């Protein structure tokens, strides 16, 4: 929707398109940051 908040992260990996299924520290950090930010915006979490 117009005016919506969005995020984009490009992660380079040699693991192919299923890399999100594996232990990728950069992917974990990006997802953790996104979820933490969404939770704080809604008054959730510490």
In short:
This protein is mostly helical and 46 residues long. The protein has 1 helix and no strands. The longest helix is centred in the C-terminal third of the chain and has 17 residues, at 25-41.
Q: Descriptors for this entry?
A:
mainly alpha; 46 residues; 1 helix; single chain
Strand-helix topology:
Elements: H1 25-41
Description of the structure:
With 46 residues, the protein is an all-alpha fold. The chain is built from 1 helix and no strands. It is flat and about 35 Å long. The N and C termini lie far apart (29 Å). The relative contact order is 0.13. The mean pLDDT is 83.
| Amino- and carboxy-terminal Cα gap | 29 Å
Run of helices and strands: H
Low-confidence stretches: none
Supply Rg.
13 Å
Largest beta-sheet characterization: none
Instruction: State the helical fraction.
Output: 25-40%
Overall body shape: flat
How many strands appear in the DSSP assignment? Answer: 0
Mean pLDDT level: 83
| Alpha-beta classification | mainly alpha
The total of helices stands at 1
> In what range is the share of β-strand residues?
under 5%
């Amino acid at each position: 929707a117009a005016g919506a908040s969005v995020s984009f992260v490009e992660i380079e990996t040699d693991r192919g398109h299923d890399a999100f299924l594996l232990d990728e520290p950069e992917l974990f950090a990006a997802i953790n940051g996104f979820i933490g930010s969404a939770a704080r915006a809604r008054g959730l979490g510490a």
